Amino acid sequence: MISEKLMSELNEQLKHELFSSNLYLAMAAYCAEEDLMGFANFFRVQAEEERFHAMKFFDYIIEMNGRARIPAIDEPKNNFASILDAFRQAYTHEQFVTKRIYHLTDLAMEEREHATISFLKWFVDEQVEEESMFNGLVKKLERIADNPNALYMLDGELAQRTFTPPSDAKQA
Ligand code: FEO
């Protein structure tokens, strides 16, 4: 049985994942305005991933006999100084999300809520990938800062990214 406190924190995470989705959509719009459609595609796919994360929390809350509450979502930042600035902010945001997942896991462990610990494990692993991906792109962008050719090459690479939900993951 999940405590009210833990259930409310799971619902709070649903909000953070929906916010993340909107934040990356805002970054996609910024990149499109800069005519970097590969970067825009990258963030658009990331927005879909975040929606998928949100739906995992939504489903889990219901599965555990809770009541998912759909929250108001704050407006994300819509303007960025540069592509690098957007990626730096995305990386910082992912570090925040990792802290949130750790906080949830600590709470579930305190309550010996084994099902929730197991559910959150997927997110612990996912955050390792997300932080590593954004950190890697920040480093790449720092290196190619003044090289438009390299920027367009990376844009072409990121145009290939597609969203594929993990086959073992439950979707709504
Ligand atoms: Fe759902 Fe990027 O964390």
TrEMBL record:
It is found in: Cytoplasm. It catalyses: 4 Fe(2+) + O2 + 6 H2O = 4 iron(III) oxide-hydroxide + 12 H(+). GO terms for cellular component: cytosol. GO terms for molecular function: ferric iron binding; ferrous iron binding; ferroxidase activity; identical protein binding. It is an enzyme of class 1 (oxidoreductase). Fe cation binds at residues 17, 50, 53, 94, 127. The keyword Oxidoreductase applies. Gene3D superfamilies: 1.20.1260.10. It holds the Pfam family Ferritin. Residues 1-145 form the Ferritin-like diiron domain. The keyword Nucleotidyltransferase does not apply. One of its GO terms (biological process) is iron ion transport. Its EC number is 1.16.3.2. Keywords: Cytoplasm, Iron, Iron storage, Metal-binding, Oxidoreductase. Iron-storage protein. PANTHER family: BACTERIAL NON-HEME FERRITIN (PTHR11431:SF127), FERRITIN (PTHR11431). Belongs to the ferritin family. Prokaryotic subfamily. This is Ferritin. It comes from Thermotalea metallivorans. The lineage of its organism: Bacteria, Bacillati, Bacillota, Clostridia, Peptostreptococcales. The gene is ftnA.
